[in-house]
Structures are given as structure tokens and as C-alpha cells.
Amino acid sequence: MTTLLHIDASPRGERSLSRRLSDRFVEAWRAHRPSDTVIARDVGRNPPPITTELWIGSVFTAEDERTDEQRDAIKVSDELIAELERADLIVLGTPMYNYGMPAALKAWFDNVIRIGKTFSFDLERGDYPLEPIMTGKTLVILSSRGEFGFGPGGVREDMNHLETHIRTCARYLGVEHTHLIAIDYQEFGDERHERSIEEAYAAVPQLVEQLQSSRRSTPATVTSGRG
Amino acid sequence: MTTLLHIDASPRGERSLSRRLSDRFVEAWRAHRPSDTVIARDVGRNPPPITTELWIGSVFTAEDERTDEQRDAIKVSDELIAELERADLIVLGTPMYNYGMPAALKAWFDNVIRIGKTFSFDLERGDYPLEPIMTGKTLVILSSRGEFGFGPGGVREDMNHLETHIRTCARYLGVEHTHLIAIDYQEFGDERHERSIEEAYAAVPQLVEQLQSSRRSTPATVTSGRG
After folding, report:
1. Which chain A positions have a beta carbon within 8 Å of B96's beta carbon?
2. CA A209 to each of CA A29, A118, A206: distance values in angstroms, whole numbers, following the listed order
């Protein structure tokens, strides 16, 4: 049994390409694993609150010493982290907004990356005092980008602050493996965009099969076949 | 006469190191230029609304065809862009949050990077259809970071998605020159942190002098002296 956390970060509904990708992923997953649990979290349409000074004060206060006001300030953070704790696989649909995460997705990360919950801090570790608390999660990023050339060696590689940033943050959520499927050229609306959509749509069921296959062979020895 | 746009992105008040830096910068500026205008925009304590599907629909609708609802949805964006248009120098105090911008600052960028206002889009330009509309602005980033080694060649260079991302976005606001002063080691609270604070505090008036000196010699020929 696998638990999926399905996050969408686009403020758009029907018109969102990243939503179409994440929906396809979850449908393809469920086609073979109908009894797996899917937790849906729509941060695009219901953004988590942006963290405040009260939030910061609360997370740095021992749990049994928090005031009611402090407890209230981190209620959403508690919920979001509880969802994350249950998840084996995070399926994240997100557009690239101004070369990075939409603010709503960053608000999600700012709520879930939390001392004592998702990471521990110990100066005895020297210059690298932070360590994730959770382990073994897989992250699938399903993205849509207006331009192109954001991959390694691409013409806009240096302007890509989306999945590079997500990967950096995801480590502190216990993510150990990350996969990316992206649609490009949205602003051009040309043949390259159509081809990019087709390729992404084709890649989704392939990735589902690959992940389900590796999960079937876990925790037993991984075989070279598809289990 | 120079107009400064002073933005703070920290949700903290007195305890914010990036606020202390930006306050010092503005004070040092005013000490020599008391009649320059300073526009203050506190996104940390009053985050702009996160952009919605209605916002997107509105900015892609011709101005004279927008409904009242659409006009309302971009009212804050209009205000923020008007502030930006007036500014020659953007003074941005921001902490590094989870290796990037606080969500509130990303919400500011998502509101101000807007078609027809801060950038134009033309497919006749080929593979690079976006161009900034404004020109000649200078950006000063005053930052505070919990860890260290985020600069070129540093041990956490690959984890820095803050000023790298800000620089990418700032181009579309008409920013042509960017300066960075950052305090490091905040989480360590050790001597290195104290030294980093001292160095940053010393760098602020130096940068103010450098910028005021180059402004004095603009638009006339730039001289090698301090004008």
C-alpha cells in the first residue's frame, strides 16, 4: 500500500497544464492500484497562510508551552505536515511562475519545513546542523513552463529556479528520489509546444509503471524485470 | 533627485536582521540626500495577495474591456507597479527562507511582473519574446541567511535560490545593476555571525557612498573621483 500526496499549485482550474499532468499521473496510478490512498491538497486554489512572526515564535516554543494564539498560528502547518508524514509519494503539479515557484507553493514549503517536525537542528553536527527527520519519500514534479531551455545545458538553465529550488527544499521533507516531467513552450503556442505536451503525456504512464514496478520489488531485492 | 523604493520582506519586526540592514541603508542615504523621496513597502508584514485565476484573466484582458471584478483583482498590482515606476533605486531587505524568497516576496514579484506593464511580449522577437519595459533601475539586496557558503564557489552555492532568483526576476522590472550585502551564520550564533554582521554594517555606508557618487556624475561623464 502506497499513500500519495497530490499537490496542485496552479491557481488555474481547467486551463492549467500542470493540473492535467498531475491528474493524469494519479489516474494512471489508480488504474493499477485502486486501493492506494490519495490525499489531495490544492494549494493553488487555497493557498496556505504566509508565515508570520507569530508562526516563527510558535515553532520555536516547546509544544507544551505554547499559548492558544501560538497553537492557532501553526494549525495549518500541523495539518500540512500530518499529510506529508502519511505520504510515500508526493505528486506535485506546478507551473513555473516568474522562473520559480508560485507564491502559494512557497507558502506551502514555508509551512512544512519546520524544526522538530521535518528537520532537526544540532550544532554538534558542525557546519551542517540540519538533518531531515523523515526518510524514503519519492517526489514527482509535473510542471508547465512558458519558455524552454531550462534543463542542464539549456539556454535558460541559469534562469531556472523552480525544480532546482524544490529539490533543495524537498530534502528536508525526507525526499530521497525526485522525478521531473515538464511541458515547455506554452507562451509560443506552436508545434514545439504541441510536441512537448505529447511527450509529457506519454512520459506520465511510463513513470507510473517504473515507480510501481520498483515499489512491487521493495522491500525485497530489486529485480531487473517489472516484477 | 532620486526616488528609493524601500521594500522589507521579513515578517519579523525588531528582530529582523535584513530590516536592520535596509533601515541603515535608507538612513545613510538620507543623511546626505535628505530631500530624496523614499517609498516604503512592507511586504513582510502586509503580504500582497497571492495571484489568482481572476488576476491572470484580468491582466490578459485589454484595459478598457475589464469588468469591475477584474479591475478589483489587479488593484494592488496596479499600486505596486506605480511605486516601481517611480523608483530609481530599489532597496530590498529580505531574509533567506528555505533557501529562497519568503512567500510574501514572491507574491510581490508575481504581482509586479505583468504583461504590458513591466514587460512586453512579441513573438516576432523569436525565441526570446519577453523584454522589460522600464530601464535604468538599480537594485540593492540586503539579506540575512541562517547558514553560509552561498556565494560563487561556496559549499552551498547550489542551494542558493534567493538572490539568483531575484536577479532573474529583477531584469523584468528594468533593473540593470544589482548589489548584494548579506549577513550569514545566523543559525550558528557564533563569532562568525558577529563578524558577518559587522562586515555587513560596514559595507552599507560604503555602498551608499558608491551609489551616490556615481549618481552625482550621471548623466554627465562618469569621472574616476567621487564627484
Report:
1. none
2. 8, 29, 5
Min mean pLDDT across A33-42, B144-153, B188-197, B218-227 is at B218-227
The number of CA neighbours under 13 Å toward the Cβ of B17 is: 21
Is B200 near chain A, with CB under 8 Å? no
For residue B38, what is the enclosing H or E element? strand B37-42
- Grid look-up 469588468 returns B67
Closest alpha carbon to B200 in B186, B187, B183 = B183
Structure pTM?
0.94
Task: Name which of B209, B2, B9 is nearest B92 in CA terms.
Answer: B9
Task: Output the pLDDT for position A101.
Answer: 98
Q: For residue range A172-215, list pLDDT tens digits in order.
A: 999 999 999 999 999 999 999 999 999 999 999 999 999 999 87
| Predicted pLDDT at B14 | 86
Here the ipTM equals 0.94
- Closest Cα to residue A162, out of B172, B161, B98? B161
Radius of gyration of chain A (CA): 19
CA A104-A107-A113 angle, to 5 degrees, is 145
The 3-state DSSP composition of chain B as helix, strand, coil percent (nearest 5) reads 45, 20, 35
Q: How many CB atoms lie within 10 A of CB B125?
A: 11
Q: Which domains does chain B have, with CATH numbers?
A: 3-216 (3.40.50.360)
Which residues on chain B are in Cβ contact (under 8 Å) with A121? 187
Residues 6+ apart with CB under 8 A from A26: A4, A6, A38, A91
> Does the beta-carbon distance from A97 to B110 stay under 8 Å?
yes
- Coil/strand/helix, residue B70: helix
> B216, B47 in Cβ contact below 8 A?
no
Q: Give the residue from A212, A48, A56 showing the smallest Cα distance to B14.
A: A56
Below-70 pLDDT ranges, chain A: 217-227
Q: Which residues contact B23 (CB under 8 A, 6 or more apart)?
A: B93
Chain B neighbours among A 170-189 (CB < 8 Å)? 172, 187-188
- For B34, the 3-state DSSP assignment is coil
Cα angle B164, B169, B171; round to 5: 105
Q: Are the Cβ atoms of B11 and A129 closer than 8 angstroms?
A: no
Other CB atoms within a 10 A radius of the CB of residue A8 amount to 28
